[in-house]
Write a structure and sequence with these properties.
globular, alpha/beta, 386 residues, 18 strands, binds pyridoxal-5'-phosphate, Lyase, Ornithine Decarboxylase, Chain A, domain 1, TIM Barrel, disordered N terminus
Length: 386
């Protein structure tokens, strides 16, 4: 490396995550919005619209309507007890076993807990990767329709639970409203026969990850839901769980080029950010636009942008038209606001990147860069002679 090269290289570890707040109005109707994974909630058109968003293990709005629930396919007794203790509006249950535990815990507390049954409708959402399909045969999520029928026929067993809702989330980044309509087709008979009051139809609304990409707007999903429901004799409260749709475009992952090389005819740009910072490309072969932070440079040969981690899948993007980067230069991985930091890890002993909130021309660090001390916190040395 020449002296000039080394002077272009700034301090190592430049990776950071830039988050700009973006709240979007969804579906144009007063729907309940619940994010399954991250306990984020907002209700449009509510009296307390301004305080309607919050982040916590469980969320109840001031007017007591929300509704947060799903922690995944297997919740521990302690998690369920916590949800009950903080009076979560609705818990989405994924198995009969979970219902039994919940019923017992609710009974011990003298509560009657509102519950949604998360169903596996057995529908293929035609997602871009198999790891983001969740409502098909063989998926670990949800309760099969026949079993749900059995549970609802025996709801007397769960006297401390109000089995008020059905929940489905068939996958992520779904471009076609038809699988959602098919899902409704599968669950509505159950909803009708068992006096279900609410349907939580999950998330998965598509985000444009590529420049100029046109994706199905949420209105089309709303239309599909509306046209399927309008003939029904009962009406249902509808909840949606938009995750990425709200925040994906609000975040950018900024990385610094650490090395560049030719290898067997490919031009490889290695950055200090990788799958520990944004795992979507490695886990789902997801596409994220990559842009040079300094615009206007001439484009070089196609580049494979790789992370530094000891995994062959650790690429942020392949065959990208980018300037001929040199070490020290910065690039931005776009639409990294969802499933970025939340899915980050310390794998390869990598401290997590800081998060920076940008508001207009102002920025603030909202999460510090982790240190090596952070990585070791909580570890204990054993006395080898003890
Ligand atoms: C139950 C549930 N609902 C909603 C979502 C949000 O999905 P997306 O971010 O694709 O909209 C997820 C994501 O994992 C989920 O597990």
């Amino acid at each position: 490396m020449s002296h000039e090269d080394s002077s272009r290289r700034t301090e190592r570890g430049q990776t950071l995550v830039v988050v700009a707040l973006a709240m979007v109005a969804l579906l144009g109707m007063s729907a309940l919005i619940v994010d399954g994974g991250n306990a984020f909630a907002q209700q449009r058109g509510s009296q307390n619209g301004s305080d309607a968003a919050s982040e916590a293990g469980a969320t109840v709005l001031a007017h007591g309507q929300l509704a947060l629930a799903s922690g995944g396919a297997g919740k521990t007794d302690a998690e369920l007890a916590y949800a009950l203790d903080v009076h979560v509006g609705q818990i989405n249950a994924e198995s009969a076993d979970e219902l039994l535990v919940l019923n017992k815990l609710a009974g011990e507390r003298g509560l009657r807990q509102r519950v949604a049954l998360r169903l596996n409708p057995g529908v293929d959402p035609h997602a871009q990767h198999k790891h983001i399909s969740t409502g098909h045969a063989g998926s670990k999520f949800g309760i099969e329709i026949d079993e749900a029928e059995f549970i609802l026929n025996n709801r007397g067993q769960f006297q401390h639970l109000d089995l008020a809702a059905l929940h489905v989330h068939i996958g992520s980044q779904i471009h076609d409203p038809v699988p959602l309509a098919q899902t409704l087709e599968r669950i509505l008979p159950l909803a009708q026969t068992h006096a279900i009051r609410a349907l939580d139809i999950g998330g998965g609304f598509p985000v444009a990850y590529r420049n100029g990409e046109l994706v199905t707007p949420p209105e089309e999903f709303a239309r599909a839901v509306h046209s399927r429901l309008k003939g029904e004799s009962r009406s249902f409260e509808i909840a949606i769980e938009p995750g990425r749709f709200i925040v994906a475009d609000a975040g950018v992952l900024v990385a610094q080029v650490q090395a560049t090389k030719h290898s067997y005819g490919r031009w490889i740009v290695v950055t200090d950010a990788g799958m520990t910072d944004l795992i979507r490309p490695a886990l789902y072969e997801a596409y994220h636009e990559i842009l040079p932070v300094v615009q206007g440079l001439p484009v070089g040969e196609l580049a494979d942008v790789a992370g530094p981690i000891c995994e062959s899948s650790d690429f942020l993007g392949k065959e990208r038209s980018l300037p001929r980067f040199e070490t020290g230069e910065l690039l931005a991985v776009m639409s990294a606001g969802a499933y970025g930091h939340t899915m980050s890890s310390n794998y390869n002993a990598r401290p997590r990147a800081p998060e920076v909130m940008v508001r207009g021309d102002r920025y603030d660090v909202v999460r510090d860069r982790e240190t090596y001390e952070d990585l070791l916190r909580g570890e204990r040395m054993l006395d080898p002679l003890a």
